[in-house]
Amino acid sequence: MSGVLERVQKYREKLRMEGMRPIQIWVPDTRRSGFAEECRRQSLLVKHDPHEKELLEFLDEAADRESWEA
Question: Cα–Cα distance between 54 and 6 in angstroms, integer?
Answer without folding.
Answer: 50
